[in-house]
Specification:
The complex is a heterodimer of chains A (327) and B (295).
Chain A (H helix, E strand, L loop, with lengths): L1 H8 L26 H37 E4 L3 E5 L3 H7 L2 H31 L9 H13 L2 H11 L6 H8 L14 H26 L3 H9 L4 H12 L1 H16 L3 H6 L11 H10 L4 H26 L6
Antiparallel strand pairs in A: 1-2
Helix pairs in contact in A: 2-14, 3-14, 4-8, 4-11, 5-8, 8-11, 11-14, 13-14
Chain B lengths: L1 H5 L5 H7 L1 H34 L4 H4 L15 H9 L2 H32 L5 H13 L2 H14 L6 H5 L6 H12 L3 H9 L4 H12 L1 H17 L2 H6 L8 H4 L4 E2 L2 E2 L1 H21 L1 H12 L2
Antiparallel strand pairs in B: 1-2
The chains are: A mainly alpha (327), B mainly alpha (295).
Chain lengths: 327, 295
């Protein structure tokens, strides 16, 4: 995401003037002909860029048009393309109660998962930063990063045991402290927070790594000056660390909001959208509509609406974040 | 400690004891370490439990109150069942094969295109690269459905080319290669051209030889992402023999019945290569994963 706007903001370097010297013989209005070298460069440019261009067409442009096609034309996986149906499918998707409730579920999931992840990873990164007096910081950073490199498909199910209301670890621990057992993934009200705990587990290390990199960039002198002025550590955190870490915080929140919004494998693996659709996120809904109920048109329309939504969010975020942050 | 006592001057100990700041500092360190340590335990528990459960019997798994260590630590029965009764070797092989194809073809194609975007001037370059960037921020969760339909039209569902699918190249890979190749001085390329090297020769002898670090990052990145990939192989692999490890192990979950023993054994096999890779190349893995997340 960050790269995109860096690329947009930084003007492309102006190409050096053409290699042919403009001599007296050349009339100004004459078309500047490319030297043989430049012609070759042009051709090889196209040739070498061809894989990328084809790739973008195949994996991005055509699929998006395909989504539009899916919403406008009848499609069945066996019979192939059918008749034009206009906005019928789109209207069906818009009027679909389950779809909107799945969007709402995703939004709620973002609210549960993202702020928790952000705050915890920020604190953990600060505690493990260069300035922190704690021992074993490097080891801790590595341990916290472990879930980022492993597949959720391999680790999600073990959470079913951790969360199990009867014999799971969490309730065992709660029981040790004399607390009432929590139904975790099996209750409509606790399922999303429980999934959010899993989300924190998966994403904490990643966010922490970015914050750690950001913290390394804050000059030590600022903290020294603050200490001389008699600032407490928490004051330094609030007045120096937080404002100077703003770019990283913004970046991480964007990544996590979009990441949480498009969550698929967490609910697919842990709850299958249950109980009572309480954890049915948008992407899971699209997946089920397409592959479980074979309603490809409806799934296409749902995906298209979701695409537009993500597009709008991305554009808004690009606008918000491309403002220069000055200290 | 001993030297501290030996070289102590009068008043040293008293001063230390009287300093409230130091006591608060030490208390802070202890408290911080406790919290972070608990956090680390929380991060590790799923892995530890997975590894341990792989050695347990049915009875032990549902035992209450729970026991951590398996009764017989060298109980490889679950791994035996996994090998004998399920095509788990095939799943493992599929994962390896799919990752390998993704890595090799991505490195080659991304290096070629990255060179074009970084060093060659041609009309439409900016537009094409804008397309790459657009693809970079496009969530795969939106395009997987039309991509699946395209694949099914091409009769590629449930085949290896289909399972590799969009992973044969990557927008992120093009981006990484372009950024790196831009840093290679133009003079090298000009000198080679003057000496009569072809563009292919330049690509092979100069660009590829010099972009080792970027290629290494790309290899690590591609390995992690395709080894762990779930949504795409889940859609594309439809018979048991074509599944990758991440998809195959889901067959141990049928409705609400979960075979924790076999799942844990399979999950351990799936997670272990990643942990080994991470331990061997921490820096590069962290950098690669940050790259993959910063889309």
């Amino acid at each position: 995401m960050r790269w995109v706007w860096e690329w947009v903001r930084v003007p492309a370097p102006t190409p050096p003037p053409d290699t042919i010297p403009r001599g007296l013989m050349q009339h100004r209005s004459a078309r500047v002909r490319l030297s043989p070298g430049r012609v070759a460069e042009e051709r090889f440019g196209w040739l070498f860029a061809a894989p990328a261009i084809l790739y973008v067409l195949l994996v991005f442009v055509i699929p998006v048009f395909f989504l539009v096609y899916l919403t406008l034309f009848n499609w069945s996986a066996f019979e192939g393309p059918g008749a034009f149906v206009g906005t019928r499918v789109l209207r069906q998707a818009v009027n679909d109660r389950v779809y909107w409730s799945s969007l709402l579920t995703s939004a709620k999931f973002v609210l549960f998962a993202v702020p928790t992840t952000l705050i915890l990873s920020l604190l953990a990164a600060t505690a493990c930063s260069r300035r922190s007096p704690l021992p074993l910081k490097g080891l801790l950073r590595v341990l916290y990063f472990l879930p980022v490199v492993t597949s959720l498909a391999a680790t999600a199910y073990i959470w079913l045991w951790l969360f199990n209301p009867a014999y799971g670890l969490f309730n065992t621990i709660l029981g040790k402290f004399g607390l009432a057992p929590v139904p975790w993934l099996t209750d409509v009200n606790t399922v999303l927070p429980s999934l959010a705990i899993m989300f924190v587990w998966v994403r904490l290390g990643f966010d922490m790594a970015i914050f750690t990199a950001g913290l390394e960039g804050i000059p030590e002198e600022f903290y020294e000056a603050a200490t001389i002025d008699g600032a407490k550590p928490w004051q330094a955190f609030l007045k120096i660390t937080l404002p100077l870490l703003n770019p990283q915080i913004v970046m991480v929140s964007i990544i996590e909001v979009i990441g949480a919004l498009k969550t698929f494998d967490l609910p697919y693996l842990a709850t299958h959208g249950g109980p009572l659709n309480a954890s049915r996120t948008v992407v899971l809904h699209i997946f089920d509509t397409a592959f479980r109920y074979n309603e490809l048109n409806k799934a296409g329309a749902a995906a298209l609406i979701f695409f537009v939504l993500i597009l709008v969010i991305t554009l808004v975020q690009l606008r918000l974040t491309s403002r220069k942050v000055e200290y | 400690m001993a030297s501290k006592i030996l070289h102590a001057r009068p008043g040293d100990f008293r001063r230390e004891r009287l300093k409230p700041g130091r006591i608060a500092r030490n208390a802070g360190i202890v408290a911080g370490m406790t919290i972070l340590g608990l956090g680390a335990v929380f991060m590790l528990i799923p892995f530890v439990w997975t590894a341990l459960t792989g050695f347990k019997t049915f009875e032990e798994i549902y035992r209450f109150p729970i026991t951590w260590l398996p009764d017989n630590i060298f109980n490889f029965t679950n791994y035996g069942i996994l090998l004998a009764d399920y095509p788990s070797l095939r799943w493992f092989g599929n994962s390896v094969l799919v990752s390998l194809i993704s890595i090799v073809s991505s490195v080659i194609l991304c290096a070629i295109s990255g060179y074009a975007f970084a060093k060659l001037r041609f009309r439409g370059r900016e537009l094409a690269f804008a397309g790459v960037l657009a693809l970079l921020i496009m969530p795969f969760e939106i395009t997987f459905l039309p991509l699946y339909l395209m694949m099914s039209r091409l009769h590629l569902v449930n085949t290896y080319p289909g399972i590799v699918g969009p992973n044969f190249m990557s927008a992120l890979g093009i981006f990484i290669m372009r950024q790196f190749i831009q840093g290679i001085p133009d003079d090298y390329i000009h000198a080679a051209r003057v000496d009569g090297a072809s563009e292919v020769g330049i690509l092979w002898h100069i660009i590829l030889r010099l972009s080792g670090p970027a290629i290494a990052t790309l290899v690590v990145l591609k390995f992690i992402l395709s080894w762990n990939d779930f949504l795409w192989p889940l859609v594309m692999a439809q018979t048991e023999t074509m599944m990758t490890l991440t998809v195959g192990m889901q067959t141990f979950i049928t409705g609400f019945v979960i075979d924790f023993r076999l799942l844990s054994a399979a999950a351990t096999i799936s997670v272990l290569p990643m942990i080994v890779l991470f331990v061997l190349a921490q820096r590069r893995v962290i950098n690669a994963m940050i790259m993959s997340g910063l889309k």
